[in-house]
Amino acid sequence: MGGGVGSWTSGVGVQRDDLMPLVYGELRRIAARYISRERPGQTLQPTALVNEAYVRLAAERPREFANKTHFLAIAALSMRQILVQRARARNAQKRGGAPHRVTLDDRNVSAEAPAGIDVLALDEALTRLAEFDAEQARIVELRYFGGLTVEETADVLGSSPATVKRHWAMARAWLKQAIEPGAPAPAE
Amino acid sequence: MNVERWARLKALFEGALDQPADARTAWLREACGTDESLLREAEALLHTHQTDDDFLEQPAQIDPADLEPFADGTVLGSYRIVREIGRGGMGVVYLAYDTRLERDVALKALPPVLAADADLRRRLRREANAAARIKHDAVAVVHALEEIDEHLVIVSEYVQGETLRAVLSHGAIDPSRAHSFAVEIAGALAAAHEAGVIHRDLKPENIIVTETGRVKVVDFGIAHVEAPEGTRMTVPGRALGTPAYMAPEQLVGGVVTPRVDVYAFGIVFSEMLTGVHPLMGTGATVPPRFAALVARCVQTSPDERYGSGAELLRALVSDITPPALEATAGAPIGSPRWWWEFHQAITAAVYWVMTWPAWMGRQSVGGRVGRALFIAILIAVIAAANLRLYLWFTSRFYPAELRWARRRVGSWVRGADWLFVIALATMGILVGEDRSPVAVVLIAVASGAAIAFLFIERGTARAAFRSSTTARTSTPP
Prior knowledge:
By secondary structure, chain A is an all-alpha fold.
């Protein structure tokens, strides 16, 4: 697996979904409004974004978005794609591939991913994890990229909070080994 | 890892968690039996879990600006987004493909919140129209301003290369090269001011050094259109644009004239020469012959600066004494550079001497063919020998420009060498039918010259320029 969202297929929740462009567009619109109101550099929790998007979409298109759990799955996947794409663009620019760096003001946006997590490495590890445990990978996507609580995650997956917690613990440990240099190497 | 093994690992991990903390290791050992590697994996996982901080417990933090860009491949009107290449407060810049005119373009999309402002849109359109009229080699062409869906999109020439900022990250630029960049930038400003456009935000990030070593100034006029209140352009405590390059009157919101560009130019030029921004206070000084010009550019009072790009350009080309003999004269005898110089001089001399046997060969071959071959040899000798002497002279007296000189004439020298060798060898073969000793000379020198420029010169050049040829090979993919 080459990793990355593009090559990323079955298992982890929704795949290319018809509603995806709608959700993606709504998330972007909300973000644009935040940008116009907030100070640069301020970050958001995905939870806030995702909930706001749901409220708006469910009001505008009640039929398509009647099923909230389906929406949450799409939203988490969208957030993952967005963050991965941003991280790639940032890397490309850092490597000096920014031939036309137009700066309209001096605000050179968001330096590093917060909390020191390398989104690209996480994405790749998650893609690998999905190969042998789709459910755990999906839990991570929902919780980390979608900002869902354990209960909400259990709802989306139709499972119990206790099960989600157990799987979450193992997935976290494995992913940490996979992407953090200090941790013991993960089992391949 | 496969599904089966993962399932066993999962059973072990969860089973161990059900045990009291101090009994887990023993339980695992028993459950794994003889499978040592499985035991190790399970122990590692358990260990990571138990010593874990809050890895992934906090959901991803999202900078709203991260959600702003278009995904690669998005289609906007007749443009297809290829990838993001830069961003600033007023929008994200993409490399895009214009499917109608089938060319790459740089596309700056202003966020809907800015595009929605009718007044801003009008001003931006006016600026873009003015910028589109600037015609100068060192100005990136603005193609169009388009309204696509809710976006306002500025389409301009896609310039491939590194920003001057990236070039400066390797340190100062040698003075003669900095001077030639400065001339091009001043020319761009002159053309813009002529067309009634003020850049307003000239800085190393807005100057691209192309792969051919030319410079292009991007973002004329459109860099800086004031946005309405309440958008992030006017974040409190943050002046529009880039304070480090802004003229004092621009910082305090005074009247903006072409002289603000002259000021910014002065800072940029000084930074090219020293490698650092003049306000950094590192004590680096501008070479004396540029000092007066730079000082005049960065005067606090606009009236004391050059009045426009044209005036600046005139000063740059006429008031500056050539980068004469201030550079260290010639390389020490026996050094690789000296050998390279020696090679250039000797080769030039040998080429000239060969006109004599070539003349004899001409008589012996006779007719049109003989004349044509002789003329070809003469042309090759004049070109190759003179270009070599030029390189030799540059190396002796203007070493700072040598890298440029070599790049500029390298392929011509190579071409002249080939012409020389081929014409000489052909003549030698034709003369050979008469068994003349001239044939031996011609063929011997032709082969000697081929060996010299194919192998020996490469060797001396590699030894002499090892450091300078590896220094500047980083170009974007």
